[in-house]
Design goal:
Keywords: Signal. 31% of the residues lie in helices and 23% in strands. The site of 2-acetamido-2-deoxy-beta-D-glucopyranose has 5 residues, from strand 2 and strand 3.
């Protein structure tokens, strides 16, 4: 399951390389990317073409749902190396949403975002849960049953498909445990050389 997200890796490696910053510790946490799917088995799929901005409507709605969950449970991760984001204006870990008609009257939404690691924390009380757990509860609680244009999707099915994968910034490789990123050998030897030079200089000036 963990390594199946080949399409994801393209998209997110692009994002990761644009936000890459100069400081390079030897070990970093890997970026956790999750994708979940919500199925709508009673959708009026023939009406989707009535909406010219369907994809953007879908993204806005899913974003609103995830932000709602995120008010109670910290699920959306800020980009580690990007600008710190204001809590209220988070894009929920660069949320991306796609949809497809699976068959007649069956529509599926895929949502992909950079998530916090489990256990995630409640924002008000001292409690923990998992990203899967709180999204599943949200789904069963009706959080993905939309109003306005998206109501043509109807009632979603209550089972949630969920996948996750871990990625590293360029210059790092995923460790065997798959949740840590290790600085690539060539980079770490360069760092060692630089550090050695600094030590020598310090020593000289002390003398
Ligand atoms: C949704 O996700 C599934 C499995 O991860 C994938 O097979 C499918 O192509 C995706 N659909 C879209 C429209 O992204």
């Amino acid at each position: 399951m963990k390594y199946r997200l080949s399409v994801l890796s393209f998209t997110f490696l692009a994002i990761l390389s644009t936000t890459f910053a100069a400081s390079r510790p030897e070990v970093k946490d890997a970026v956790r990317i999750v994708r979940f799917q919500v199925d709508y088995p009673h959708a009026q799929v023939d009406r989707i073409s009535d909406y010219t901005k369907w994809t953007s409507l879908m993204r806005k709605s899913v974003l609103a749902s995830l932000r709602f969950i995120n008010k109670h449970w910290n699920i959306c991760a800020a980009m580690e190396e990007g600008k710190p984001e204001k809590k209220d204006s988070v894009d929920c870990g660069k949320l991306q949403v796609t949809g497809e008609i699976v068959r007649d009257n069956f529509y599926r939404i895929n949502a992909t975002f950079i998530a916090e690691r489990d256990p995630i924390r409640n924002t008000n009380v001292d409690a923990t849960s998992t990203v899967f757990g709180v999204v599943q509860i949200g789904l069963r609680g009706g959080i993905f049953q939309y109003t306005n244009a998206l109501k043509v999707l109807g009632k979603p099915s209550s089972s949630l498909a969920f996948e996750e994968a871990f990625f590293c910034y360029p210059g790092y490789s995923l460790s065997a445990s798959s949740e840590k990123c290790l600085l690539d050998a060539s980079d770490s030897s360069r760092r060692r050389v630089r550090r050695a030079t600094k030590t020598t200089k310090k020593h000289k000036s002390a003398v």
